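Our preliminary data section would be incomplete without showing what the modeling component actually yields. Below, a chain of 360 amino acids is followed by its predicted structure, encoded as tokens that our downstream tools consume directly.
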Amino acid sequence: MIDQHVRQALAEVIPEDLGFDLISAGAGVEITANDEVLAVDICLGFPFASVANEYRRQIETALEPLLAGRRLALHLHHKVVSHRAQAGLAPASGVRNVIVVASGKGGVGKSTTAVNLALAMQAEGARVGLLDADVFGPSVPMLLGIPERTRPGVRDNRFFIPVPAQGLQTMSMGYVVDDDTPVVWRGPKASGALTQLFSQTIWDDLDYLIIDMPPGTGDIQLTLAQKVPVAGAVIVTTPQDLALADAIKGVEMFRKVDIGVLGVVENMAVHVCSECGHAEHIFGQGGAQRLVEKYDTVLLGSLPLSMSIREQADGGAPTVVGQPESVEAGLYRQVARRVTARLSMQAKERTAFPRVFMHH
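Predicted structure:
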């Protein structure tokens, strides 16, 4: 009986940063009770390090009426599992979930968002990799402050070992193509290079691999969607209607190829005056809201148009690591929790056959 009461109480716990309750979020709950102790073990499907204390407080408050003189022994932890990718694609070796960060057009701050999102997931307690799939303008090495001419290690002449950067496992076209050899690949070749980069890298036990997609909705994006097992997509847009029209194409493309859209990040949404703190929606507001309503997805967060975000990224120390206490870093971490929590609600990977390892 107490089991049921505990679950009912937990179904009322709605962390502010998620907007839905822990039971809906798929938390695994184990309860044992005797006269002295009510022991509750809660395992969430997403990392939440920076808000663990808030979650604990909310849970303790919800369970207090049920204690009846017992003390509460609460164990709160997380475990990331593999979620379903496109039909017919087995999960990649060494990677539990691939999340692509995409935009309908360039210039919306997609790479900066991808890098900060990866760092934010790591700050919350996940093992994270970052694949820079922008074949024509790989910017991730610069954003993470990786020295020029850095090369990945190679194993068996066939596999790349990811380049460590700020705790992330990273791989980029920029590591294997020189700045001075311009990339003049045509579509099919470029998309082939991308799948190769993905599958020939020895990823080590990642909860999430973030793929920073090239902007647009062409060949490379489609190939990726057919060859790489993707658990979900995040669309980056700016508030201008033009960018939104492009974002809509992105949403529609992922729908067609059986990849779920986890949500939309609205970038450069608000300008905050560095002198007085006044916030102004310089590009109009509410566009992303209309997009998410029309396509039944969610707005994961709105990030300000901030000089510091750009300066820190250009200087190789993105906001989440460069200014971890800043409002912006907090926003990225909230987006990271929302993305991973929404993913944790999706169907788990249903494969009955053993996972196929591509390298050994």
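The chain has two domains: 2-78, 95-344. Residues 27 and 147 are 41 Å apart (CA to CA). Preliminary results of this kind motivate Aim 1 of the renewal.
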